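Follow-up to my post from last week.
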Amino acid sequence: MFIDVKALERLRREARRAALGAGLDPWEVIFGVVGYDDINAFSAYDGFPERFPHWQFGMAYDYHRKHSAYAGWWTYELVLNTRPAIAFLRESNSPLEHKAVMVHVYGHVDFFKHNRWFSKTPKNMIQVMRNHAERIEAHMDEQGRERVEQFIDRYLSIQYNIDPLAPFIKRRWHARPAPADQAEEEVPHLHVKRDYMERFVNPPRWLESQRAKSAARREERGRLRDESELERPQQDLLWFLIQYGRLENWQADILAMLREESYYFVPQIQTKVMNEGWASLFQAKLMAELAGPNEFLDHAEMLSLVLGGGGMNPYALGKHIWEDIKERWDKGRFGRDWELCRDREARKHWDTHAGLGQEKLFEVRRNYNDLTFISEFFTEELFEKLNLFAYEYIPDTGAYHITSRDFEDVKRKLLLKYTHLGRPVIQVAGGNYDNKGELLLLHQWNGIGLEWGQTKQVLKHIYAMWGRPVNLKTIIRRKSKGPDQSRNRIHPERPLTAVLEEQGVLLRYDGERFRELALSPEEVADIRTDDVNYNTIPQEWIG
Amino acid sequence: MRKRIRKDLERYKRIVRGEIRKNLKELIESGEIVGQKGHDIVKIPLKSIRIPEFRYGRREQGGVGAGPGEVGQPIQVDKRGDGPPRPGQGSGGHVPEVEIELQELAEILGEELQLPRIQPKGLRRTSRSGEEYQDISLVGPETLLRKRQAFRAALLRQLLLEEGDGRPRGRQPRIVSPIREDKRYLYAEPQSRPEAAAVIVFMRDASGSMTGEKTEIIRQENYWIDLWLRTNYQQLERVYILHDYEAQEVSEEQFYSLSTGGGTRISAAYQLCDKILEHRFPVADWNIYPIHFSDGENWIGDTENNCVPLLKENLLPKCNIFCYGQVTLGRRSPGMHLVKLQELLAEDDRLITSIIAEREDILTSIKEFLGKGR
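User reply:
Got it. Predicted complex:
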């Protein structure tokens, strides 16, 4: 197909100039124009040209293909967090679409460059991914494709059992000097004014013995560290398995590579709402200037397609919050006076002409992630505007019901989705449980139980990597008393639900079968982190 | 990249095929596939294809939605999160659905049941729009417009009109503007070529005893038979006949939803079937597949006096096969209709009978019906 490179370059320059003019500061972006089938392939590979061989990518590719062929569905934009950034344009885009996508991409790239949470990700992931693909292919040649793929299946089931904050924590093992270049620690000795007195005040033999002692202490300390790592609960299950699991060399190699890929994707998951909102915000703003008079409506339609589907669309939610921040800081709706003001009328017309919106936007984009972003800037006003509600599943009616339209409830529920990548927190408590070399995992229970069937499958996978029995401590909820339907004469529309009781459980897989051991409340005291109540079922529905 | 993703795709397809084959019986019994709208793709829930992860229990987790509604009101939670696996998009605890083309599903069905390919017995000339645009037409879509020819026709027309006027134009540039009549379009002549065509005559006893689960089983059976025949013939027509004491032709929707209270006289359906075949589907052109389901109860004497002669002399000679399925929930003993058919028509291998006592029999019954490759 003929591609008018010159026209594209003109569009790109226009888009870049506009982006810079609006205060964005992106890296250079290399745009590639690709056909629709390639777009599908890139999407399947999360934007990368090459990934390790695995059927899951085939599945994603198949999905994209079918949906672009049958439903007119298309990938909006693809952009890679590399330096320079790389983005792909669909070859069949209209000039308007090209322009809009380019502006959108510049928004993303600006975000990649300046958001703190991306500061630790490597910027050469294309090469890294390709190296991984090649190395894993080599392993496949040696070990057989099926075998390696099966192992990767296992990795995938714990791919995000890592510590999302890890890149920002200074670890003890980071600080530990390597044994080879361990600097000789100077043994403390008395200060001597006259040199000839030195060997009498600090006798060499004494110094020698002190040195030996300190070396022994150091060694001892090092050993203790290693053991304490086996004992202290930690988040990074993948790391733990690489260190202590019963893995063959090729397996450990693959796991280490793929763990790196997991960490690469973490900031993207952590900032999805912000990042998409940010790019959409600037796209809407800049396209208002860039779109020609006859393109304006088309762009509005294009944008509404992306932002449509209610307030819970991450693109839309993020954009709403960003716009709200801009407005609030422009009008001075922040600080003590604002917080304390309870007069709705006054709040509605509040405007101190502070004009700090722009500045605040860039500050927020530097420092926040989705969790802190929503927690701080998702306001009651916004909540009312978006008409949100919380819902829960009521087993006794077999359906989902609206359970709350209270701001606090909805916000908590919303934050749950963005806390710890929206996943339950699973920690490794140690590798010597019951003094039998068994793995003990702790589910830090926040009131929401695990998907039981899947959890069992994951334990099987972990068992295969650990090589010894695997235990998981968690809490489940059980029905203790059915609802009293006669209570409902006055409010027949109210869905009643059963009373639930909590039960600590130790789920154990020993390679052959599962066993569920009941634990006493004291035994699960260490995994209860239910100081936040995510459950929004009204009290009067229960029992 | 192309090469890599193709490999991944192949691997995925092989895994899916394997999983579907493994779960085919369960899949057919559960009836998950039947009743899906859309003609190219079916969605198949496949638990085993999912990569398990530590996830919040879907039902304990709840969520946030937007829109109107009172507290307490039940809502539909849409499953849009179910897209492709990608970072940041947890698909929650849903059972993942695999999408597969019908053609492929039919192939899997064929492989698993070891169904022989059908040998069509006759070919019919059908005409369908050809693929080669070799002709020119006066009407057509704008994309197929032949501009040069259109302008030539316009020029000719203008010249002719001017001649009529008798006024010379001098050296002024001539403006040629084609009007609708000048336009010429590429056109592909319909080509007639022999194609194997088949007709399925679905018949069902609609009397009061044939409701609920029985109808559901019939729907399942029909779906899979239909699927298999559809992939074996280029052209497939369907006729639906419902009967109690009388028989009538109905639409597909009515076929599964209507039920009547009357008695049962099966020969009425066979007669109607024969009449329809006689008039609309000549034996020479069509492969004919009548499929009849009932619970085996029939009007006294109707089977031996009316049905059997009718089958023997008129229907069976026309058919590739004639399937009779007796749906008796929980009861395996054959009803009288089946006994008599087997007794009196035992030597005719075009008649295939099957008893479906519960959902688990569906698979074997499909195999019985289609296992002959005719």
